[in-house]
Each structure stands twice: as structure tokens, then as C-alpha cells.
Amino acid sequence: MHDPTALFRFKEHDIHLPMMVLEELDRAKKGVSEVARNVRQVSHLLDDLIAGASKDEIDRGLPLPGPVNQLGEPSSGRLYFQIRPTRLSPPATLPGNTPDNDILGMALTLQQDHPRRQVTLVSKDINLRIKAAILGIHAEDYYNDQALDDVNLLYGGTHNLPTSFWDSHGKEMESWKDSGRTFYRVQGPDIANWHPNQGLFQAETDAAFIVRQLRGMEAVIEILRDHTTPNHAVWGITARNREQNFALNLLLDPEIDFVSLLGAAGTGKTLLALAAGLAQVLDAKRYREIIMTRVTVPVGEDIGFLPGTEEEKMTPWMGALMDNLEVLAPQEGGEWGRAATADLLSSKIKIRSLNFMRGRTFQNKYLIIDEAQNLTSKQMKTLITRAGPGTKVICLGNIAQIDTPYLSETTSGLTYVVDRFKDWPHGGHVTLRRGERSRLAEFASDRL
């Protein structure tokens, strides 16, 4: 239900599918949810595997398609279905006749039937794994959907240059100017660890650069446009720290089609994305409008069904958008001026639900995906592939604040896209580290 292609992810290991799992798949197949779609895909895959197989072939195990090893033998295991009732049932300490207990009973039976083989129960259900460990069954999480082994290895988007950098990399340096922009060509061993559109800085100085081209041990870097000064403000907003400055450079660059911003609450993700979007929609006329969407996962109790259009239904979830528009909308000009500005902004910012994204194509749009840490990698692919010609996609989120069941920091769709896009010349990423909301919010974030 979590990954419909999981059958093909276990390499040389054999898979045993309890009949209770098929029953649970059957119960979840109806509807238009992501889980129901996944279940139907699994059912089609199982049907394709069984097609044309005799009863004896099914009993002996169906070969799973996979790559061939060096000896010319298939490197994948076989798929077995439960064909006999479980002889062993969980002890009386596990009350009730739940599907989980039936699966545990099947694992105990397999352990007894195959004493020389290790039987492993793979599940995304933490409580089922705890029960299995108590009964002496080896249990594991499903690891194939992890983008990284450790979230601390996640690409941060910036790099602090050592003090000796220019001594070791500036011997054959070239510099030139083009359309008011300053570029440098540098060579050296450290460049092998750089990524396209990565922010470079030296903590001892105010120098900041962005990587424009990479070719082996050679790179072209550009001096960063400084958005910390009022002269280079973006829709009235200036960058308050180094990471925000890097983020605004990425958001305003027409050559970058995908930007991801990670950061805790109050680091300015939404405000920066909206300010850059309004500057490019209303001033530069680079995009037609801003499309904003997010996953509707409530923090507390759900408020039930909401009346109205798609936009009206999404409005309660878009409090962050409204709060930031109050900052971005000019306050002078009297009541009429503020009302006119609010009407103009509302005509250029559209709120859309994720539920209706399949089959759509956004052309010349500035698409903001808020709270992206609550999306799976498959949902993220569905959304980003909606981008048509001239569309820029911005993903915002905080992987330390995941509200979706069965997702963690290493399996979140946001972690997945940050890792997959880091080497693409038209993608950029920045992890915002400093909270700029208020001194109260920053203190609360650190101490509470």
C-alpha cells in the first residue's frame, strides 16, 4: 500500500505473502485515494505474475523478474503465497483475532517450517514490528523508499570555503563581466565536491558566490547579487541572513526551474517564495500567476467538510499565505489603495488542492508546494511532473515536522527531491537555519 513495486525490491530474497495481506488489499482497493490507487496497481502486478501459471507452479513459487547476475542466473527470489492454514497462533498475551495477529502466526509457522532460513517480517507498522520482536520474530522497516541512510547527510545547498581556498584554487583564475554580472573560472580538488547552483561563502569575509558551471576539477562561479540591502529589495523584502540571500538568488533566477527550501518555522520560506513570485509575476511579467498548494493534514481534530468552491475549501489551510500577504501588501495609500492591492494580489495568486492535480499541466506558472515534507516520493513526482513550459516549481517544508503516518525524515518526498535534484543544472536548494520571525519565536524554537 505504501510502495506498489515493493515486490521487486528484495533482490535475491524470497517473498511469502500471507492470505491476510491479500484480504487487506481487497478491502482497501475502492476509492480515489493514493492508497487505493497503489492497491489496484499491486493487484494488477500480482495478476500479471500469476497469469498462465498452473497450481503446481504457484505452489513452487513464482519467479520474480529482475536483473541477471554474472553467472547468467536471475538475481531475484521467488514469490510464494500462503497455501496452508497457519498451524501456530500467537500466544494468549496477544488478545483478539486481528489481521496483525494472523500475519504473526504465519511468520511463526514459517520459522518452524524453515529452521535453517531467516524469516523476516517487513512492515511499515511500528506496532506490528514491536509485537514481532516480543515473539522472537526478526522484523524490519521497509528501507527501499529511503532517500538517505541518515538525514544529516542531506545536501544543505551552501558550502563554507576554507581560508586557504584562493591560494590553492586561484593560481590560474580567470575573471570577466557579462551584463553587469561578474564571473570567475577556478580550478582545484575541492570543486569535485561542489554541486550546480550551490552557494559558496567565506565566514571570515562577506564574499558570496554561486556555482554556475561544473566540469571535472574546473568551475565557473558568479558573485552573488546582494539582496540584503534596500537597493536590491524584492517586493519590499530584504534578506536578513546569508541563506535567505542565497534563496532569493535562486528564486529570481529564470534559468532555475526547481527550487527547494528547507527550514524550521520562522526561517522565512513562504515569505521569500511569495515575494520572489510577486516580483516576477507583477513586475517582470515572467509568469502568468502564482499557484499555491499544500497537503491538508490537520494538526488537531479535523473540522469536517467545508462548503464552497475548491479555492474556498482550501482557504482555511492557507493561513500562512494570508499572513505573508499582509507583510507584502503595501500599507500606505489609504483604505482604497489597500483594497485595490488586495484585489490585484488575489487575482494573481490561485489556491489549488492536491487532490485535483492529476492530468493537469501548468504553463508559465509559479507553483509553490507548501508543507512538502508531508508528501511521499510518488506524490512529489506526480506534482512536479505537472510543470509545463515556462513553469517554476518551489517546494517548501520542514522535515522535522512531518504529520503523515508512515513517513519519516529519510523517506519524506521533500528529502527525496532534494537528494535527486542536487546535481541538476536547473535545480537549486537552500537549507535556511536562522529563525527571523521574532526573538520570542526563535527562543521558543530552541528551548521548547
Descriptive account of the structure:
Residues 1-142 form the PIN domain. This protein is an alpha/beta fold. The protein has three domains: 6-140, Rossmann fold, CATH 3.40.50; 156-223, no CATH class; 231-447, P-loop containing nucleotide triphosphate hydrolases (Rossmann fold, 3-Layer(aba) Sandwich). The chain contains 14 helices and 17 strands. The protein has helices at residues 19-27, 34-50, 55-60, 99-113, 126-134, 165-169, 242-251, 269-283, 310-314, 319-328, 334-348, 377-384, 413-421, 439-447; strands spanning 15-17, 62-63, 78-81, 120-122, 138-140, 158-160, 174-178, 181-187, 199-201, 208-215, 218-223, 258-263, 289-294, 349-351, 365-370, 392-397, 427-432. A hairpin with a 2-residue loop joins β7 (174-178) and β8 (181-187). α7 runs parallel beside α8 (269-283) and α12 (377-384) crosses α13. Residues 297-303 have low confidence and may be disordered.
Major sheet: order of its strands? 6-9-10-11-8-7
The appropriate CATH architecture of the largest domain is 3-Layer(aba) Sandwich
Shape: globular
Tell me the CATH topology of the largest domain: Rossmann fold
- Number of domain units: 3
- How many β-strand runs? 17
Roughly how much helix do the residues carry, as a percent range?
25-40%
The largest sheet is: 6 strands, mixed
Radius of gyration: 26 Å
Structural class: alpha/beta
Q: For the record, give the distance between the C-alpha atoms at the N and C termini, rounded to a whole number.
A: 36 Å
Taken as a percent bin, the fraction of beta residues is: 15-25%
Question: What is the CATH class name of the largest domain?
Answer: Alpha Beta
Q: Extract low-pLDDT stretches.
A: 297-303
* CATH H level, superfamily name of the largest domain: P-loop containing nucleotide triphosphate hydrolases
> What's the tally of helices?
14
* Whole-number mean pLDDT: 86
Protein name: PhoH family protein
Keywords: ATP-binding, Nucleotide-binding
InterPro entries: P-loop_NTPase, PhoH, PhoH2-like, PIN-like_dom_sf, PIN_dom
Family: Belongs to the PhoH family. In the N-terminal section; belongs to the PINc/VapC protein family.
